[in-house]
Design goal:
Oligomer: single chain
Helix content: under 10%
Structural class: mainly beta
Distance between the termini: 23 Å
Radius of gyration: 29 Å
Strand content: 35-45%
Largest sheet: 7 strands, mixed
Number of strands: 61
Number of helices: 0
């Protein structure tokens, strides 16, 4: 629907690490609100804080759960079953706690997988296959190469030598008891970490405590008591199912407190505080303004940065020593390698960092070990996107209330346009009204009384029938594609509504009400005042002169896909339309999953897209899933709303996915439904989130 924006690249968040042997995991963000609703800010960098591209690949695993070492060939289809945690030694060998196979695996730097210890479900000390584990989860390694395993189902801490000899260091039956060796008791130990002198620290999940195990096997309780949430010293503090744990060079512990959705800090003196997180959700930001969803694994680098497996959000998060939370990788739940928003994890649990700063992730839901590497540093830094709700209820409740920010309500808003003063105009589809939103987020009703109908008139004397598309001319007049009324309406700046063309559904060209439309949706205007309409139901692009004369510019009325001239070309439910400075039109062709270009002579071509899907790329290599809204900036870049995504299309047809989704991470969720989009002169995007009944604002800095 219109105007100007800066270019951006697919997001990658920040990471600084030089640490060899620690561990970590994934993540999320959420929306920021303005006046009248909850505020949670999202800061999304298109590169990490060194200007490096973050690339995720599959390092090991076939993705089909079961047990198979795959022989000695790294190309063999190695299979894991819920790999839960990883650790890495000085030589770069990776060790995996393969939970549901009850095994400990070794993976060489070349990807060769073997079983170091375990043979199946049970409990037995011994060498190699003679040993047995029961759902091992946490794993850590000491300077001598010995592994320590949180053997969850056996309620024990096990030691595995480099030769695969397994012994029990501490623990026995389920319960809670401090003491030496097997007199101690744990209740589902999960995470495990080790300090410089060999002390182990265990996240004793179902006891809601943090335990310490000396090299001799003496177990004590550092912090925690009953289930709950409380900061404070020692046993006065409370945790709720702590799952991951890491220790820094100063001896401070960091705990992924899964049930509380927080990251806690435990000093060497036993003082517990909350470093980041609050309620369950997805939001980046400082300290308690950030949100996590069942964080599991956690690791710390030499600079004191933490990396968190935000398991419920399927993302990897970073926390600076000051508590600033950002997202490193991940978007929707699934399995996809690549960069930026294309990356997907499925319940990632554990992570390790090698000497080169590469990350290895135990992606439990995908039964894979994933690797994250960083490209060369760039002097050019990516932009940060701050996403906020400008207007509409943060809870997604619909209604018709006017007010400021979150006090206002919409009901399936669809189209959006912006004037030179920065005021937004919204076609509020199911409320059958046209709304005005000031730059401060104050919402008022410009025209329409809420009753569905076709009456012209001033302000609330007028009626609309499913207003969808909206555009604005240089004088401040609005033009509305009234979808259910099959009309094009004009609304002056004073709210006076008149019908420019159309009336009954049909295909006829002509002047004024002699012309017919069939469910028009998108609308755009050129410098001469000509309107262009995406006539959804007739599969045509229509032109309306300032005098109200309607003609067909392109499309033969038959749903299909054909590039050609004028009436020979075909569209399939064209949804929205934008125009550039030279008069070229761009159409979001919904059921063709393509972006089409129409020259002033009516020549139709496909700029980007092919079959339905989601893929960035150039031209037909790119894929869209129901493109609906479209806008254009001063340099000719297009911005397309694609389900819950905002996609950018360059004049050469190169498609990328932008930061800026209401989940806060700038990556597309498969839920929600973005429709209209507008861009102001400063490059700020305004996106209509129809399914959540609100208007989102995305600022790039």
């Amino acid at each position: 629907m219109s105007s100007l924006c800066h270019s951006t690249k697919p997001f990658v968040a920040s990471m600084k690490t030089k640490s060899p042997v620690f561990r970590f995991l994934p993540v999320v963000f959420a929306l920021a609100c303005l006046t009248g609703c909850e505020t949670t800010k999202t800061n999304i960098s298109t590169q990490d804080d060194h200007g490096r591209t973050v690339t995720v690949s599959t390092f090991a695993g076939g993705g089909n759960r079961n047990y198979d070492d795959g022989g000695t060939s790294p190309a063999s289809p190695v299979r894991f079953d819920e790999p839960y945690d990883v650790a890495i030694d000085k030589a770069g060998n990776l060790y995996v706690a393969d939970r549901d196979n009850h095994l400990i695996h070794k993976i060489t730097p070349t990807g060769e997988v073997s079983t170091l210890a375990g043979s199946g479900y049970g409990y037995a000390d011994g060498v190699g296959e003679a040993a047995k584990f029961n759902r091992p989860r946490g794993i850590v390694i000491d300077a001598a190469g010995n592994l320590y395993v949180a053997d969850t189902g056996n309620y024990r801490i096990r030691k595995v030598t480099p030769q695969g000899e397994v012994s029990t260091l501490a623990g026995s039956t389920e319960g809670f008891a401090d003491g030496p060796g097997i007199s101690a008791k744990f209740n589902e130990p999960y995470g495990i970490a080790i300090d410089a002198v060999g002390n182990l620290y265990v996240a004793d999940r179902d006891n809601h405590r943090i335990r310490k195990v000396t090299p001799k096997g003496e177990v004590s309780t550092l912090a925690g008591s009953t289930r709950g949430f409380a900061d404070g010293p020692g046993i006065s503090a409370q945790f709720y199912n702590p799952s991951g744990i890491a220790v820094d060079s100063a001896g401070n512990l960091y705990v992924a407190d899964s049930g509380n959705h927080r990251i806690r800090k435990l000093t060497s003196k036993g003082e517990v505080s909350t470093l980041a997180g609050s309620v369950s959700g997805r939001a980046d930001g400082p300290g308690i303004s950030a949100q996590f969803n069942e964080p599991f694994g956690i690791a710390v680098d030499r600079a004191g940065n933490l990396y968190v497996a935000d398991s419920g959000n399927s993302r990897i998060r970073k926390i600076t020593p000051r508590g600033e939370v950002s997202t490193l990788a991940g978007s929707a739940s699934g399995h996809a390698d690549g960069t930026g928003c294309a990356v997907q994890f499925s319940r990632p649990r554990g992570v390790a960092i090698d000497a080169a700063g590469n990350l290895y992730v135990a992606d439990a839901g995908s039964d894979l070990i994933r690797k994250i590497v960083f490209g060369q540093e760039s002097k050019k830094r990516g932009k940060t996107a701050t996403v906020s709700i400008l207007a509409g209820n943060a809870g997604g409740n619909h209604g018709n209330s006017n007010g400021v920010g979150g006090a206002a309500q919409f009901d399936e808003p669809s189209g959006i346009a912006i004037d030179v003063a920065g005021n937004l105009y919204v076609a509020d589809y199911d409320n059958n009204i046209i709304r005005k939103v000031t730059p401060q987020g104050e919402v008022s009703t410009l025209a329409g009384n809420g009753s569905r109908g076709n009456d012209d008139g001033i302000g609330n004397n007028a009626q609309f029938a499913g207003p969808y598309g909206i555009t604005i001319d240089a004088a401040g007049n609005l033009y509305v594609a009234d979808h259910r009324g099959h009309r094009i309406r004009k609304v002056t700046s004073k709210g006076e509504v008149s019908t420019l063309a159309g009336g009954i559904p049909g295909l006829a060209d002509g002047i004024g009400n002699a012309a017919q439309f069939h469910g028009p949706r998108g609308i755009a205007i050129d410098a001469a005042g000509n309107l262009y309409v995406a006539d959804f139901g007739s599969h045509r692009i229509r032109k309306i002169t300032p005098n109200g004369e309607v003609s067909t510019l392109a499309g033969n009325g038959i749903a299909g896909h054909a590039d050609d001239t004028g009436g020979i070309a075909q569209f399939d439910e064209p949804y929205d339309i934008a125009i550039d400075a030279t008069g070229n039109l761009y159409v979001a062709d919904l059921d063709n999953y393509r972006i089409r270009k129409i020259t002033p002579k009516g020549e139709v071509s496909t700029l980007a897209g092919s079959a339905r899907g989601f893929a960035d790329g150039v031209g037909s290599a790119a894929q869209f899933s129901y493109p609906r809204g479209i806008a254009i900036d001063a340099t000719g870049n297009l911005y397309v709303t694609d389900e819950g995504r905002v996609r950018k299309v360059t004049p050469k047809g190169e498609v990328s996915t932008l930061p800026g989704r209401t989940d806060g991470d700038g990556c597309a969720e498969q839920s929600g439904e973005y429709h209209g989009i507008a861009i102001d002169a400063a490059g700020t995007l305004y996106v209509v989130d129809k399914g959540n009944h609100r208007i989102n604002k995305i600022v790039f800095e």
